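Worked example 2:
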Amino acid sequence: MRQHRRLALGASVLASLAMLVTTGGGAIVSAQDQPTVRIGSDNFYESRLLGEIYAQALETAGFSVDRQLGLGSRFDRAPAFEEGQVDLVPEYVGSGLGYYVAAAQAAGDAGVAEVAALEVSGDGETNLANLQTAYDLLGIDATVLGITPGEDTNAAAVRADTAAELGLTTLSDLAPVADQLVFGLPPECETNALCKGALEQYGIDFAALRKESLAPCGAEIADALAGRAVDFGWLCSTQPAIAQNGFVVLEDDLQTQPAENLAPVVRDDFLAQVDGGAEAIAAILDPVSAAITTEILTDLNVRIAVDQEDIEDVAANFLASVSGG
C-alpha cells in the first residue's frame, strides 16, 4: 500500500517546520500568509528527489507548493529559474558555478570578466560562495542556502572488461585508446566545460569521438554501457548502476571535476514575500540539507532506481528518519 506523502515528521530536527514562522523581528506570523513556492528541478531522478524533499519540508511548515519538477537539463532549468518561472531549485554548486563561468568565458565580454575568473574548486563551501558571487555579478537575484555534506560528482565509467583489456585506471589512460571506444555522453556535453572540456584536458579529440547522446544520471547511459551499446559513460557517482554492474570509475587524475554538494537556490523576489525572508526558508531547509550525506544520497537513489519506490514516498520517509519520527 502506498504511504501518504505527508508522514508525521516528528519534533527534533524538523521542529523548524512548525506551522507558525517567526519573522526577523521576533513576531509570530501565520504560515497561511506565506506565498506559494514554485519548485523546479532537473529531469533526472536525484534532482527530482531533492525538489520533492524541499517541497514536503515547506508544505509541513505550512507553505503551499507548486511542483514543476523535471524541467530538463541545467540548460533548460537555469533559464526558467532566472526568468522567474520557478522560485526554488536544487543545485549542484560545482556544476552550477561552472555553468556560469563557462558562459562568461565564452562571451568574452569585459562586463562578465569577473565571473569568468571565478574558481570552480574541489571545496564545496568555496563553490557555494563563488556561485553566490556569480549570481550577484550577473544581476541574478537569488540566494544560495546551505550545502549538503554529501555530494554527487561526475563519474567517468567503463565496463570492467574494457578497463582490463585496455589497462584503464585513470582518465589519462583514456586518450591513447579513445578512438577504439563509443562514448555515452549527455546532450549538453559539447557546451559543458565539465564534460567536453574535461575530456579535452586529457588530450581527447572530442570532435573525432564516436558518441551517443543519452540522458545523464538516469538509466540511459548506464544501460547502454552495461548493454555494450557504448564503452564509456559519464555517470553520476551516486548512481546504483555503478556497483550493480561492476563498472570501473576512472580516476580523474587531473582533478577536472569540482565538489558537487547540493544546495537549494531561491529567488530573492520570492524571499521578499516571505515573512522572515531568507532566514525563515533557511531555518526550514538548512537542517534538511545538513542531514544528506553521500551515503544517504546513494541509498535514496537505490530505493528509487533499483527498488522502484515512488519519489514522494522516498522523500517522506527520509524526512521522517531525519526527525526521528
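The longest strand covers residues 262-267. Residues 151 and 261 are 4 Å apart (CA to CA).
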